[in-house]
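Predict structure. Input: Acyltransferase 3 domain-containing protein, 378 residues.
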Amino acid sequence: MPTSGRAWLIDLLKALGCVLIVLHHLAFYGPMSDVVMGVWPQLIEWLFDRARLAVQMFLVCAGFLTAGSLRHVMRLDAPLAAQWLWRRYLRLSLPLLAALSVVVLVSEIIRPGFDHPSLSALPTWWQAWAHVFLLQHLLDLEALSAGVWYVAVDFQLYALAMLVLAVAQRLSRWKAHTRAEVWCNRLWLMLAAASLWWWSGIESLDDYALYFCASYAMGWLAYQTRLARMAGKIGFSFGIVVILGAVALWLDPNWRLATALTVAALLVAAPQEWFAPPEGCGLWCRTIQAISRMSYAVFVVHFGISLAVNAWVSQRWPDQLLPNALGMLGSLALSLLAGALLFKYVEQPRPTVMRWLRWVGIFMLSVALAMHINSLAG
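Output follows.
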């Protein structure tokens, strides 16, 4: 069973999700997409409305992979949980801080000639520090980049997974005849039910893990069910969450839940061969694996790239279809390239406190420079 993104099926889902999210934001923010929409409205509307469903793919895959990575943790005490949470925070924050450093500078450089709603206001110091600690949405502050909310929710969901595991292990010691894995599945079922039937219907909770934990729980239970099947056992947990999800879908039909259920069911039912790279893995296969590996880096950096390309194209060819369509494709290609560089030089090296302090300093320096550029522009 895979415990990392190097499983082929998950690589494929992550790579597809990565490209769809970039295209969704290109369609959402414009103005290149506004020009393209005049000729291909259905394409832009689909990217606007449906491509964002890739978030559900990421959530399910994250739950699946987290279940695999925590599978062998026999005793989760407070020091170990704090260590793992800090490691997770470093992994998320280093690429994010680097990407935000780019975005705040790009925004102020292009602002004089690019008056567009996609540009965030000049950041304040309070806002910048809130981004460092992934608190911007909880403090009701404007995000400096698209998708920052997801980074914060991902960290919350990981912390929730640690809490569920710790509670399950405590319950298993209280009732020794029931294993921790069983308690874990029961707790995730309860969380999934609460999210499906209650929390996901409260829009004010969409900055919190509770709003999204149904999709994450589906991924977790999909892993456990697949593990049980491979051991020749019957896993009931995923079947129960499918029933809960189907009823919720019947009561309130929506594409988010349908996508999460479909991806989770695929991870449960897919043949084991689908988790291994195809035989004779060629360039296309290696490309998918590469995009999967750097998908997080692409996710956090692409908004700054798209701002720059949008500003450049709209100033030179504001109403011409071909340059704007090519601009969208070029922005996607440049985002992948920038993501590859960010992955290699920021995300891939071992995260340390010193590297975190360095990137916090670079981000704050970028904010100060953005303020200076803004003052010069008047």
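The radius of gyration is 22 Å.
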